Amino acid sequence: MLRAVMAGCGAMSNGWLRAIRETPALAAEVEVVGLVDLDESVARARGAEHGLDVPVGADLGAMIDMVRPDAVFDLVVPPARAGVVELALARGCHVLSEKPLATSMEEARRLLAAAERAGRIHGVVQNRRHLPGIRRVRALLASGALGELTAIHSDFFIGAHFGGFREEMDHVLLLDMAIHTFDQARFLSGLDAARVYCRETNPQGSWYRHGAAAEALFDMERGVAFTYRGSWVAEGANTAWEASWRIVGTRGTVLWDGNEGIEAHRVAGGEGFFRPLEEVPVPETDLPAEGHAGVILDFARALREGRRPLTDARDNIRSLAMVFGAIRSAEAGAPMPVEGTDLERTTA
């Protein structure tokens, strides 16, 4: 069993604890042995809600020293992330963090260096990688059935009324949401971004203070284009949270609604103004756990098996770099390079 302390017991912790309790494969792999929150009463209430008879406290260092966990589950707010991760790594714990990995590229590089020094794994929650739809589309692309990849197009349009801190954020869509879609594009294609041109707006009627919509064009490796269109103030016809996709190869195209709606066709003849097409079967997939449960299970199994998890921070920094590249481009009104392509590439 992976013994873990959970740091940050706000609303997000409910989903983690429910996933651990209700996913049989995960319940057999992970044990939460301590709860930490700056408000100790919040940690105590969360433990009671989920039937956990474990120590609670407000001091993460003291909790680690007391229960000696294998890992820390980091669910704190982004500005506090670096301090929590560095403390946990320095005390010999592996860490699985909620996204984002860091609040800047400089901070992200510092956390990667800290994990390297400690000889520990730092994973990041990118739960879209552990959903059936994306695994099926990824397998289709990897099979070569559509030929060589040439373009990836994604649309994310949701009228999301969160209230609270998001409505006061700068670059709210790019910082808080777009990394999911950017990471999906990298996961689907196996390619990194080299350059980006991004336009960011706050449309009329927006209930956000800044940056509720954006369009971005990324130059990916091997000459592949990736386009992103997104808005958090698009009422009336929501896409999936996983976005909707058109992915084009030299022999055909796959349309994916972000869930289980997948339709693929390829050229089946060499004559005619529009070449004849044939439907391409999309591979099935079998996941031991999905979403957050899938991320946590993969993290636990990776530690047991001596490998890196699918959402290792050394990979995730390349998705984070796309976010900050897009922000820099939007602020400058000009194309910008995407940092991170100099980093060592890792695969799970």
Automatic annotation (TrEMBL):
GO molecular function: nucleotide binding; oxidoreductase activity
Pfam families on file: GFO_IDH_MocA, GFO_IDH_MocA_C3
Keyword Transit peptide: no
Chain ranges of the Gfo/Idh/MocA-like oxidoreductase N-terminal domain: 3-123
Domain annotation GFO/IDH/MocA-like oxidoreductase: ranges: 134-254
Oxidoreductase among keywords: yes
SUPFAM superfamilies xref list: Glyceraldehyde-3-phosphate dehydrogenase-like, C-terminal domain, NAD(P)-binding Rossmann-fold domains
Keywords: Oxidoreductase
Similarity remark: Belongs to the Gfo/Idh/MocA family.
Stated name of the protein: Gfo/Idh/MocA family oxidoreductase
Organism annotation: Rubellimicrobium roseum
